[in-house]
From TrEMBL:
Coiled coil: none
PROSITE patterns: PROKAR_LIPOPROTEIN, TAT
Key words of the record: Lipoprotein, Signal
Organism taxonomic ancestry: Bacteria, Bacillati, Actinomycetota, Actinomycetes, Kitasatosporales
Protein name in UniProt: Lipoprotein
SUPFAM superfamilies in UniProt: Triger factor/SurA peptide-binding domain-like (SSF109998)
Residues in the signal sequence: 1-26
InterPro entries (alphabetical): PrsA_foldase, TAT_signal, Trigger_fact/SurA_dom_sf
Organism: Streptomyces lavendofoliae
Amino acid sequence: MHRLHRRRRTALSVSAALLAAAPLLAACGSDAHPGAAAVVDGDRIEVSALQAQVREVRSAQEASPQAKQLIEATGDLNREKLNGMIFDRVVEKVAAGQGITVSRKEVQETRRAAAAQSGGEEQLAAMLLQQQGVAPDEIDDVVRRNVLMNKIAAKLGAGNTPEGQQRLTEVFAAASKALDIDVNPRYGTWDNDKIQLGEYSAPWLRQPAGKQQM
């Protein structure tokens, strides 16, 4: 996380191979969970909560001098945010299974280091908004995800070897399946093996393995 400013369109420091493994969950009927964008381990992700995240990003983008470019480059922000909300729950599941926790102090220290490397909090926020569609209020969540992912990779001895990455993929795929993720069809279907929404390509998947720097 100490070189977050060098990251280009990625939110994780582990290899993209983690989420690039090669069936799709059956889509739930939109009336099965009215008002829910997805249900993860029996817990609802409300459409209203998803839309709130989208509004936060749009507000931050609109306040930027590069507003037009940022909005045009965002793509399907609803799916991007839902993908992240679900993936965060998978990360938490894996972390809990491995006995891994992250303290508030760790998040604060990692964020301070990232800001220092980026040239300050303002620059860090601008970079994350531009490259990952992260609103200022979401930065701590992104930092927490990174710290958890780094700890998980270290605990599993993932490294950058094919064997390590395969082990990491297997652990995350197993956690994803155990959560019984059910997505409202309007947003697509969840792929347990790729740990993402269907063919959606999350920002942290857009770089080839070996270039996942923080």
